[in-house]
Amino acid sequence: METVKIPGVGAVPTGHDLLNHNVYNKGTAFTPEERRVLHIDGLLPPVVTTIETQVERVISNYRKKPDNIEKYIFMMALMERNLTLFNRVLIEHLEEMMSIVYTPTVGEACLEYSHIFRKPQGVFLSAEHRGRFAELLAQWPAESVEVIVVTDGERILGLGDLGAQGMGIPVGKLCLYTACAGINPLRCLPVTIDVGTNNVDFLNDPLYIGLKQERIRGEAYDALIDEFIAAVHARWPEALIQFEDFANINAFRLLEKYRRRVCTFNDDIQGTACVTLAGLHAAARMTGGRLSDQKILFLGAGMAGTGIGELIVKAMVREGLNEAEARLRCWFVDSKGLVVKGREGLAAHKLPFAHEHPPVLTLADAVDTLRPTVLIGVSGQAGKFDKKILRAMAAYNKTPVIMALSNPTSKSECTASEAYTWTEGRAIFASGSPFDPVTYEGRTFVPSQCNNAYVFPGMGLGVTTTRTRHVADEMFLAAAETLGRAASRADFELGRLFPPIKEIRRVSLEIAVAVAQVAYKNGLAAEPHPGDLEAFIRPCMYEPCYPSYV
Prior knowledge:
Radius of gyration: 24 Å
Oligomer: single chain
Helix content: 40-55%
Mean pLDDT: 96
CATH architecture of the largest domain: 3-Layer(aba) Sandwich
CATH superfamily of the largest domain: NAD(P)-binding Rossmann-like Domain
Number of helices: 24
CATH topology of the largest domain: Rossmann fold
Low-confidence stretches: none
Strand content: 5-15%
Shape: globular
Number of domains: 4
Distance between the termini: 20 Å
CATH class of the largest domain: Alpha Beta
């Protein structure tokens, strides 16, 4: 590949290689002089357009696509063709496009990933590569990687084991790191560790892109994860590693195993907990109450639910409760009923929330018995918050807090319309995936989305700019408090717990500052303290603009 050295830019490809390189390609925005220098004069139509005009063209074509999956394919093709333009479009139209590049459409894309596959994104490390992970990561062209999102594809959203097709999740998450917090996309790396799949449909699909074998378990699996962590740490020792969509049997233990060895967190456990806690802080502001006054009932006691519970306990302790008192504010219902002491076969992560209480077999009976002020769904089961349950919540509370957090939308425990209608418009509602505004008796509600994108990009920005060595629980508490203060009274009037998505870069900067403060307070930051943290972090946020090549 022929290159031309450009001062301030470096070696830039020329000719067709340039137009096929998504980092350097500017399309019709190349000036006449750039076209001559880079040997692409004549390879483009003669008109020179601005990036603003290109954005208009992209959004016009995007809106002509017949459905969401076609919009997703269109945007991924743009990212593969022109990375700068992709990020410019995404940032300027984030409210419209977040649900396409991430939940819920990314779930549909992962289901169809082998069939819509165009071009590899990121790094696929498979069980067949054991012993070569360092060699394969060395093939990634970036000298510096700041954020890695890794999955093994076993628990993709609420869709289950999607194997290698789960790569859509790391790709989508990293799009949001850039769009929401300005993490440079050239310093982001999506990774899928392919250890097989137990999805029979995929194993029988001739187009499936992953290993056609059952999932590896036990010591062999752990050895692959160990090798991955060691290879990353050897090449990019300061990189933040985000675990994403690992199954319960691995998620908790991997987090505990590595969180003090490398800079890492699990977004399904800690990110979900953080944004949910932020929603509860905001709900307390909305009603004038305190978090520690709430009684919270969860449907679902997996990693998301108990992760939320653990962070809530820490936040209540900060408000003055002791740990035992705080845990008694959190109750769980799983597939066998209320989690109580003495029940046989309880998993270790459920035991801290197993309280003294007679057995209760159904969610409806648990609501009637405990009379919670907050109902949180993390079950992955659509419709579990039915009319009877929501009416009971409204009967016991003036303003019941209903959080139907399961993704994608088809898995939500109730819809926004059901929550508002069956509580006579008194519910404070939040969901995992987006719902359209709802009008009830003349009042229009804008449902809140407990979207982890409010948290993890700002967390990543605060961690990477300060070169933080470990991600501490206190950082998530600080992020939740910051996000819980971010909504305005105007947002509250609409029933919204969080600011609109168009303000998310402001929110991410505020969270990054709060995270950085914790890092410096606890001696976790390797970067010397800059004094004014906001003034230091703000210029680090990537803005998608074309460079000059002359």
